[in-house]
Amino acid sequence: MTVLGILNCKMLQDEIVYLILNDPEIKDVTVVENGEHHEFIRKLDEVGKTYSLAPMIHSIPDLSDREKQNDADAGAGISLIVWNLELGLHEKPKILKDEVYRDLEIFAKKADGIYLLYGLCGNVLGHVEDDFKDICPIVILRDPEGEIVDDCIAATIGGRKPYLNLLKSFHGVGTFIFTPMYEDTIDEFFNYAKDRRGLTEEQIVEMNKFMFEASNYKRVARLETGLHYTKDTETKLKRFADTYGFEIFDLDGGHQQIFDDCYQKLKDKIIQKETTAA
Predict the structure, then answer these.
(1) Domain check: are 239 and 263 in the same one?
(2) 44 and 107 belong to one structural domain
(3) Could you give the number of structural domains in the chain?
(4) What distance in Å separates the CA atoms of residue 266 and residue 137, rounded to the nearest whole number?
(5) CA-CA 20 to 30 A from 25: which of 105, 177, 218, 249?
(6) How would you classify residue 98: left for phi > 0, otherwise alpha for psi between -120 and 50, otherwise beta?
């Protein structure tokens, strides 16, 4: 059975639920139990998808230690391992890169290929596929033109060009674009900033108000992704908007095409690797 790993920003857990539900080749799912997994497994429970928990990534056997499968098991399906990383890594891009690279080195010993659900994220992951090309097939989120997406919003609306066109359509009015997971993690994200900078909540709010006003931010767009695994986010969004005096409006156009295409690209890479090794 092929072992496929997903190393992902916690913000993209809904897209993983979607992939699991829509790939009949996936025969079992293992979730790394690292403290960032609770919301993800709750969603799996809600959609009726079974899974097992690994208390830590090191508890999952390396590929070299797995029992060799006989010919009858060849191509029998996919064993999926999902490893959610903490949202707060985005606070410092270098720390994000160091953590992702360190985790990929571990993960590469346990999976036939890894789907990296990140974008450029501060321009620190642009060379990750090449850096690991001799170790393990890795696919990061890329748009139809082959460009690595800037962030999860760009991935959700189809890539760099649609993202740029969308931003231009705001005519200079600063606009936050929130997916349901963005809405759900607003407090968590700002708590990271508060804790790591040693500031009070009031100080964070004042600092944000200054930055938002200087950048002409006035609105929050609720991006419809087509995925509804994250629920009851309206209160958090309204509190955020009210705190900073933002207008809220709905925005259509989200979809999963990039997530589907890159997932298939990884599967194709794994097949190519297995064919070459045979």
Answers:
(1) no
(2) yes
(3) 2
(4) 7
(5) 105
(6) alpha
**Cβ–Cβ < 8 Å for 32, 84:** yes
Of 10, 25, 16, 7, the C-alpha closest to 79 is 25
- Dump the DSSP string for 142-187: B-TTSPBPSSHHHHHHTSHHHHHHHHHHTTT-EEEEE-HHHHHTHH
Tell me the pLDDT tens digit for each residue of 137-159.
999 999 999 999 999 999 999 99
- Over residues 90-138, the pLDDT tens digits come to 777 888 999 999 999 999 999 999 999 999 987 899 999 999 999 999 9
DSSP 67: P
195 shares a domain with 109: no
Geometric angle at alpha carbon 254, from 250 and 256, rounded to 5°? 155
Same domain, 264 and 129: yes
Dump the DSSP string for 191-241: HHHHHHHT--HHHHHHHHHHHHHHTTEEEEEEE--S---S---HHHHHHHH
Residues 140 and 170 in one domain: no
Which two tokens mark 230? 């994250």
Element at 42 (helix H, strand E): helix 38-46
Return the DSSP state at 94: H
Closest C-alpha among 119, 121, 127 to residue 148: 119
Q: What is the CATH number of the domain that holds 74?
A: 3.40.35
| Residues 183 and 211 placed together within one structural domain of the fold | yes
Q: Are residues 19 and 146 in the same domain?
A: yes
Arithmetic mean of pLDDT, 152-176: 96
Give the DSSP letter of residue 65: G
What does the pLDDT look like over 192-215, one tens digit per residue? 666 666 788 888 889 899 999 999
Domain that holds residue 202: 158-251
